[in-house]
Amino acid sequence: MTGSSSIPFGGSGSSDADAAGWRRLHADAVARLQSWEAPDDQQERLRLDFLEHLLAHPDALSKAGPPAHLTGSVIVLDEEGDSALLTLHRRAREWFQFGGHFEPGDASVWHAARREAREESGISDISVLPTIVQLDRHVLSGDFGRCREHLDIRFAAVSARSAASAVSAESIDVRWWPVDALPEGTGDDLRPLVDAARRRLPR
Description:
The protein contains four helices and eight strands, in the order ααββββαββββα. It has one domain: Nucleoside Triphosphate Pyrophosphohydrolase. The protein is globular. A hairpin with a 5-residue loop joins strand 2 (83-89) and strand 3 (95-96). It is an alpha+beta fold.
């Protein structure tokens, strides 16, 4: 992509602290993607696409930035890697991993993904692994306002199945699913993410 957004860091109403927060997140995303070793050619192409998008858009991590912007998400697995905790998204009406938009107060891309996982699962002690497990770029369908495309930086986390989960305002349901019996219609997206996360679990 070429050019740059004309309203950096969320618009003219942003505070100095918010602007500094967006700059910190932008720098963190660039550093993480530059140092990440993609596992295959498809992921390497996405890594380069994300970096190009960040270079073109100083506000690429803000929901108020370009219609195509970065997000962070977490796939939560149990300690054995046999089950995945998923959320039935209220707006999309589909099962997903936990995740969403960055906020200027997030200390890093990783912290933002962990915050989303904790908020949307209701589990406060989710242990999010430190490295990226997958990148994904997808066009949004449904009522998502001006958001048109998400460039998602994905992490993996571990939680005990006995941990009490809760449904957030953004969800209809939160439920454990066997990794070999994921919800119908999610295989094309969730299967590669689950497999990538299982490879990163501590053994």
